[in-house]
Every structure is written in C-alpha cells, then in structure tokens.
Write a structure and sequence with these properties.
alpha/beta, Rossmann fold, 5-stranded mixed β-sheet, 11 helices, 41% helix, globular, Shikimate dehydrogenase, Aminoacid_DH-like_N_sf, Shikimate_DH-bd_N, oxidoreductase
C-alpha cells in the first residue's frame, strides 16, 4: 500500500483537522494520503448521491460527521452488533462488494475516558443531543457502567428513538428524556455536549452555567475550538473536563487502523499537530 484516498463527508468542516491527522499518519508509514473535505451542499449533491460518488471513485474509506452519521448507517453493512444497535456510523470502508460501517466515536470515547479517568464510573449523565455523536457517546457511557442517562433534545422523537435503542441494549439502564437540558441536569454527575453548539460557526453553549453546579465532570464533543464555552463554564464551576480533542484523537486513531491496517505513533502525531498550531 503506497497511497490512500480518504475523505470526510459533513457540513461546516472547513476547520476539521482530520485531513492533517491522516496525512501525518500516512507520513509515519511511508504512505501518500489524499483526504478530501466533501460537503454535500458545496458539491451540489445530497448525501446519498455523494456517497454513491465516493464509493465509485476509488476511495479506500471515508469519515462521516454531522449531520449524516445516522443516514450513513443505512448505506453500509455493519458487522458489529453493538454498532448496529446504536444506529450511527462515522467510518466507512470500501474494501469489498458492500461498504462496511464502523463507529470509532464510540470506541474513541471509551479510549479517551480510560486514558484520562481510568475505570471511574461516569455516574448519572446528561447527554445533550441525540444525533449521531450523541448516540455513540450515550452507548459508550452505558458501556462504561452508568446506570442512568438523561437525554436532552428539542427533537423529542429522535431522543425517544435513542432511549429505546439504549434500553434494548442495556435493559438495566434508566433513561430519561426531555427537551429542557437545564432541568435534566439537576443532580447529574456528568454533562455531555453532543450538539454542534460551540463549534466554529455555531457559537454559544447548550447549557447555562448555573445548571452545571454540582456535577463532577463535563465532556464536549466539539473540538474546533478546543476551549469551547461549554468547557470554560464547566471549569469555572469546578468540574473536571474532557476535551473533544481527546475524542478526535481516539476516533481518528481507530479510523486510521481501519483504513491502513498500519501502526501509528500517537505521541508523535500529537506533537506534530501541536507544532502546526504553533507555527
């Protein structure tokens, strides 16, 4: 393998660092990598048309981000029953007759949590946003041992679909659903932003600072910028925080392993990315 053609399908991805990550990973392994930003609206295609295009165009694989992860799950073969249950994919391989789907958000979050907080139980956790990344994080939180998850989303049917999937996969799990994140935050140990609010182009925070008081930890899936308003408010309220950058690294490492089946020096890659930020 001397060349990989990869890409990312999503909206508002101009600031994504995924292209640099995979090109640096390729450089470590002597592999030439092209990694395209694929925005359906810019390319004047809907998601399905664009997916068909990349499937036929010689791509080894693609990543999927907001808001297409659930749609992507309907276009691929999913071998992992856990990923089938959570119903969203963020990584697709074109390596056979049917494209195969994976969720490295799920595995990447578990890896990031374990590196930072070991085997600590997340406790009762509020997840704001029941879309693709919210589904992956919610399943990961349940896998890590949480006994109660609260789902906040203004799209209540979507939140209820996620609640149903969670309770089917984890029968002992207590799941509460509502539209008001602040109300659901009361007495929660963990707070998760799984919405695009706070990312470049979508400023703000999905949770007012007073609602954070009393929680123990917070995680923001947004990583551009790294220091979101959500995490800044959480730090000010005395919470331990986990940056979306840790999820970015975790999911990208797992995706690279799928794309290339080659090793990666994560510490070196982190240093290379950091050096680019300075220069």
């Amino acid at each position: 393998m001397t060349h990989l053609r990869l890409g990312l399908i999503g909206d508002n991805i101009g600031a994504s660092r995924a292209p640099r990550f995979h090109m640096l990973a390729g450089k470590q392994n002597g592999i030439s990598v092209t990694y395209d930003r694929l925005v359906p609206q810019v390319m004047e295609r809907d998601f399905d048309s664009l997916f068909d295009h990349v499937m036929a165009a010689g791509y080894r694989g693609i990543n999927i981000t907001y808001p297409y992860k659930e749609r992507a799950a309907t276009r691929v073969r999913i071998d992992d029953p856990g990923v089938r249950a959570l119903g969203a994919v963020n990584t697709v391989l074109f390596d056979g007759e049917a494209p195969r789907g994976f969720n490295t958000d799920h595995s990447g979050f578990i890896s990031a949590w374990s590196k930072v907080w070991g085997n600590v139980n997340p406790g009762t956790t509020l997840v704001i946003g029941a879309g693709g990344v919210g589904r992956a994080i919610s399943f990961a939180i349940a896998t890590l041992g949480a006994r109660e998850i609260r789902l906040a989303d203004t799209d209540l049917p979507r939140a209820n679909r996620l609640a149903k999937a969670l309770t089917e996969a984890f029968p002992a799990l207590d799941v509460r659903v509502g539209a008001n994140a602040a109300a659901l935050a009361a007495d929660a140990q963990g707070l998760v932003n799984a919405t695009p609010v706070g990312m470049t182009g979508h400023p703000g925070t999905p949770l007012p600072p007073p609602a954070m008081r009393g929680a123990l930890w917070a995680f923001d899936a947004v990583y551009t910028p790294i220091n979101t308003q959500f995490l800044t408010d959480a730090t000010s309220a005395g919470l331990n925080t986990l940056s979306g950058f840790e999820l970015f690294i975790g999911q990208a490492v797992d995706a690279w392993n799928l794309f290339s089946e080659r090793p990666i020096d994560e510490a070196r890659l982190r240093a290379d990315l950091a050096a680019e930020e300075i220069t």
